[in-house]
Amino acid sequence: MTDTLLDTKDLSVRFGGHVAVDAVTCGFRAGELTAIVGPNGAGKTTYFNLISGQIAASAGKVRLEGRDITRRGVSERCRLGIGRAFQLTNLFPGLSVFENLRLVVQAKRGRGTSLLRLAGADREVAREAEAILSQVRLEPFAAQPVSELSHGNQRKLEVALLIALDPLVYMFDEPTAGMSIDEAPVVLDLIAGLKARADRTILLVEHKMDVIRSLADRIIVLHNGALAADGPPAEVMASAVVQEAYMGRELDHG
Ligand SMILES: Nc1ncnc2c1ncn2[C@@H]1O[C@H](COP(=O)(O)OP(=O)(O)OP(=O)(O)O)[C@@H](O)[C@H]1O
């Protein structure tokens, strides 16, 4: 398929005797948002870690636009276009929201992340950072050190940083977890906007059914590390494998 941006082929990882991801073969197309679901311990986070390069595969391949990136490290995969939502540990906690965002915009533009450059009047970079801040409704917190942000605003900043990076593959891990009811729509609208661009692929690990329903074009189900179902949301949710895997308990129908 020509518009497949990312694919995994027989991708597996074993921890001791335990196979956490078991020969997962799956392709992800541009313009498609795929929700990855499965019971606790099914291997969703581990599959993400294998794609982003946080952990090394025991077997199989990860390919980006057909190119084998299985042996590349996290930062190289990131440079090539694999974008996983940042975690606070990747940021400069003492720097402000705006400065962190500006560093990512600068890095993306290939101007390095030298702090000295922050002193320079790079208006274009600043303007782009401002525009992204406004998209995620974080302007009021622009000057706040990242370490002082509320949980909901930290999550919004993670999305903002990913948008600044603008990867080919956007990877979100429960992007609205812990957000208040009025904060979540901002993030969901942004993700919907990314999808509408149709030139990126989006992977979403998510437990909330309402989020999956509103955003996903496709659901893949992992169960005991293996791909147990793959298809349009309505079809997959109604399938016997999902009903059995969840036994009506683990998906959040809220
Ligand atoms: N570094 C590791 N060392 C050993 N076992 C691990 C490691 N990482 C994950 N596992 C195991 O692999 C399995 C899959 O875990 P993973 O976190 O990927 O599941 P998950 O589907 O993301 O679960 P959850 O919904 O609870 O986040 C689990 O049995 C877990 O204990």
- What is the CA–CA distance across the termini? 36 Å
Spatial sequence of strands, sheet with the most strands: 6-7-8-3-9-10
> Hetero groups bound?
adenosine-5'-triphosphate
Q: Give the averaged pLDDT, no decimals.
A: 88
Shape verdict:
globular
Instruction: Please name the CATH architecture of the largest domain.
Output: 3-Layer(aba) Sandwich
Main sheet summary = 6 strands, mixed
Q: Could you name the ranges where pLDDT drops below 50 across 5 or more consecutive residues?
A: none
**Share of residues in strands:** 15-25%
As a whole number of angstroms, the C-alpha radius of gyration is 18 Å
Structural class: alpha/beta
Please give the share of residues in helix: 25-40%
GO molecular function, one term: ATP binding
Organism: Limimaricola litoreus
Domain ABC transporter: 6-249
Keywords: ATP-binding, Nucleotide-binding, Transport
Explain what you see.
This protein is α/β, with parallel strands linked by helices and 254 residues long. Helices cover 37% and strands 24% of the residues. It has two domains: 147 residues, P-loop containing nucleotide triphosphate hydrolases (Rossmann fold), CATH 3.40.50; 81 residues, no CATH class. It has ten helices and ten strands. The strands form two sheets. It has a six-stranded mixed sheet with strand order 6-7-8-3-9-10, with helices on both faces. Helix 3 crosses helix 5 and helix 3 runs parallel beside helix 6. It is globular, with a radius of gyration of 18 Å. It starts with a strand and ends in an 8-residue tail after the last helix.
